[in-house]
Every structure is written in C-alpha cells, then in structure tokens.
Design a protein that fits this description.
CATH class of the largest domain: Alpha Beta
Shape: globular
Distance between the termini: 28 Å
Number of domains: 2
Structural class: alpha+beta
CATH architecture of the largest domain: 3-Layer(aba) Sandwich
Strand content: 25-35%
C-alpha cells in the first residue's frame, strides 16, 4: 500500500543576513531589491556549421525554477527581470547590469544575478591571468572569430568585465549564482545511468571549440574576504562540468530543492549550508563520475550568516499559485473529495466527473508548498480515462491516500487534456541508482507544469480545483 498526503504551502519571505550585514524586511519602503535572470539555451552563431550542437536543454526550466526560488526569497515580479535566449546578448546583459540592476539600489538592498548556459575559456586579453586564460560566460550572440594564428570567441562576458560590473553595484548584498562551467571536454550528450531524476541524457554546460586554451577555473573566482561586495555560488569546481538535463540543470534543481525545504522547515540556512545541500542533491541525482561540486567564492564572510526564510502556512506559495493559476485557464472540470477536512490517517477519496475521454493529471500542493503528482502514480501508471464518474483511488487501484503531515490546507487540482500529457513521466520521480522507483508519487517539476500549460492552450482542455484541510486533531475544522 502507498501513503500520500494532501500538500500545500504559502508565500515565503527571505531576509539576507550575511555575516554582520543585516537586510531589513523586503516589505519596507526603502528596500529596492533587484534580480536579473539570464538563461541561454540556443546559440545560433555557434551552431552554424558546427560538428557538435552547442544548444542546451532545460534552460527555460532553469529560469522557471529560479522564479520560484526568488518568490520564496520575497522578490515580487516587478523586481525581477529575465533575459532569455535572443534577449540575452552581451550588450543587453551589460546594459541591464549597468542600469536597471544598479538604479535605486542601496547598500542593504539584496541583488541576485543568475546565469544558466555555457561557460568556457578564451586566451587572456589583458595579461592578468597567471594561467593565460580568461573564464567567460557564453551569450546568445557569441560567435567564433579567427585571428592571425588562432580561434577565439567574440561577444562573451569575461570574468574581468563581470567583476567590474559587480563592483559598481551599490549593494553590499549581491548574490551571484552561476549554473555553468569553465572546464570540460568536447563530449556533448551523454547517457545518465543513474536514473534518480527519471531522465536518460545529460549535457555538460561547457562550450568546447578547436583552438581554445586548455584548462579553466571557477567563473566567480578569488576568495577575497572583505574585498568584494558579492558572494558567488557556482555549479562546479575548475576540474568538473556542470550538467544540463531535460528537467533543468542539476545545480538549479538542487538550489530550488534546498531553498524550498529550508523554508518549509523554518530554517535559516547560510549560503554554505545551501551549497552543501545542493552538493548532496547532485550526488543523489547522478553517477559519481559525473558529479560536480558547487563552489563559493567572492567575499566568503557573506556566506556565513543565515538566510532567514519566513514561510506562511496558510496557502499562496509559488507552487500553489502556479498550479492554481494553471487550473484557472481550463474549461470547467468538476472535482470533489469525500469530505472537506481530514484527520491524519483518514483515507482521502478524490472524485472527478470526466466529461469526455482524455488524459487526467491530478496534482496536490500541501501547506508547505510541496507539490506532487497524485495521479498517475507508481500503482496507476496510465492516466488515460473514459467519460463518466471517476474515483481515485478506485476499488481496483492498489493504493490508498491517507491524510498525513503537514497539517493545513491542501490544494487538489485536476487537469483533463485531449492530447497525451503525463505529469508523472515528466516529474522528479524519486528513483534509486538502478532506476527503481522509491516513492509512489513523483515531485512536480517545471517540465510537467510546462507540458500541462501547453495543453491548457488547446481548445478542449479542462481543469478544476478544490481545497481540503488536513488536521491532526480529533475534530477536523
């Protein structure tokens, strides 16, 4: 028998407290946080005439996952700007760092700068690198350029330039997150033998080109204690390659997992603790030879203080809001439960009035904003349904749904599509290294919500939602 719980949570607010620097609450009038998310998965110039496809999978999902992280950290949509693919040119990135990221920012205001895409190296341009190489981030308009006796890259964000741009930001609370690497080989796609994520292929987030200088290092490098206004968390050491998958980058997935779990558990993790949790997530998700270890650089004192997360327990978290909004886009679908409230251990029954045959996905979000795919699941892998009333679990289904912790409201959302969409297959499945499922219900992924969202734009998409309460008391209220 399986166990399942209603799941839901509320908006969380984070206060950065780095070392002795304390940030006032984000709701105060003086605070003007800024977050710039940069994602590049398509490289048209580098793809032209290339033997190996330079494009990366899952970058759009990285951006979606980071939007959830920022919501948990208290950022509001007007405080977040996104540069994705064609918009993420070198000139545009530099312009945003020089203007919008800096404008109105005071020393105590939090600034987050995130990049997901390729990293690589070029020959040192100004002679300041002992190894003769500059580490760079690869922009959407990066191109190969042939010089008199070598090949290099144009339109890249060089580490020296990035450091200068960071130094101009008035804030002393700058957090840089880099899901890329500057060390790798010419290998492109590779099979992931460890199937914990339910994906079969990965790609190194490193751009290799003939004639490039060998070696490399962490992009935001140099542990400059006391000398920098930023702290950086990068995905890999200088001898490793960060991994991109069709679920998103392992580093970003681990970051989302660490921040969400800390908020749900009412912890105040330091960046060092977040790094360790991301490291553990990566170790659980991929075979040892492909593992990469996140690295903290910049002013390491800024990594020691706690990041105070203050989660609400009454609904409205980023996952809850995303699933509820998704359900509101469909035509009406009648969803109900056998009762409006449940004590721990009582069996939940979900009822759906299916108006026509199609494919059904049921998602729950609990009071701590943990979202799972309730149906289909390990014991009911097919989500093709016929017209008529449907009970989950039905008498022939080999699982039950006992209510369990955490207590509080639970969102139950059902999605019926005419085209085949299986959120379980797109979720984070909880497998062991051999590929065996270790949990009945999969964690909802950005890939799954994206697939449902595509279906939501189809004419015959239907959705419905209901909220139930889970309580440990003897008399549910």
């Amino acid at each position: 028998m399986s166990t399942a719980a209603g799941r839901f949570s509320a908006l969380s607010v984070v206060h950065f407290i780095f070392g002795t620097l304390a940030l006032v609450g984000l709701s105060t009038a003086s605070a003007e946080p800024r977050a710039l998310l940069i994602g590049v998965g398509e490289y048209p110039n580098l793809a032209r005439g290339a033997k190996l496809n330079p494009n990366l999978p899952g970058i759009d999902l990285d951006i979606a996952n980071m939007q959830q992280v920022l919501t948990i950290m208290g950022f509001r949509p007007p405080q977040v700007r996104i540069l994705f693919n064609d918009d993420a040119t070198l000139d545009r990135v530099v312009h945003e760092l020089n203007t919008w990221v800096r404008d109105g920012v005071e020393p105590g205001d939090p600034v987050v700068i995130y990049f997901s895409g390729h990293g690589t190296t070029i020959v040192d341009r100004n002679g300041d690198e002992p190894d003769g190489r500059d580490e760079v981030l690869v922009m959407s308009d990066t191109d190969r350029v042939r010089t008199a006796n070598s090949v290099t890259l144009d339109k890249v964000l060089v580490d020296d330039t990035f450091g200068e741009l960071l130094a101009k930001i008035p804030s002393h609370q700058v957090l840089v997150l880099v899901d890329a690497c500057q060390s790798g080989t010419a290998t492109r796609g590779f099979e992931i033998r460890d199937r914990r994520l339910g994906v079969a292929e990965g790609m190194p987030k490193f751009y290799y080109y003939e004639g490039m200088p060998l070696g490399g290092g962490v992009f935001a490098k140099g542990e400059q204690t006391g000398s920098a206004n930023y702290v950086a968390l990068s995905a890999a050491t200088d001898t490793q390659s960060a991994v991109a998958t069709y679920q998103g980058g392992l580093f970003t997935l681990g970051l989302r997992d660490a921040i969400a779990r800390a908020a749900a558990e009412k912890r105040t993790p330091s960046l060092e603790q977040v790094r360790d949790e991301v490291d553990q997530f990566i170790a659980r998700s991929i075979e040892p030879e492909r593992r990469h270890d996140p690295v903290i650089t910049g002013d390491t004192r800024l990594a020691e203080g706690g990041i105070v997360l203050v989660p609400s327990e009454n609904g409205g978290g980023p996952l809850w809001a995303e699933v509820a909004e998704l359900a509101s886009k469909g035509n009406s679908l009648v969803v109900s439960t056998s009762r409006p409230a449940y004590q721990f251990g009582e069996e939940v029954e979900i009822r759906v009035d299916v108006p026509s045959e199609g494919f059904l996905n049921i998602i729950t979000v609990d009071s701590q904003d943990r979202a799972t795919v309730l149906f289909p699941n390990q014991y009911a892998s097919s989500n093709a349904v016929r017209k008529g009333p449907l009970r989950i679990p039905s008498p022939e289904m080999k699982f039950i749904l006992p209510a369990q912790a955490p207590a509080g409201p639970t969102l139950v959302a059902a999605f019926l599509s005419q085209q085949p969409v299986n959120a379980r297959e797109l979720g984070l499945e909880g497998r062991d290294a051999s590929g065996r499922l270790t949990q009945t219900f999969t964690d909802l992924s950005a890939a799954a919500t994206r697939a449902i969202g595509v279906a939501a734009r189809k004419e015959r998409f239907r959705a419905g939602k209901i909220t139930v309460n889970v309580t440990p008391s003897e008399s549910p209220k």
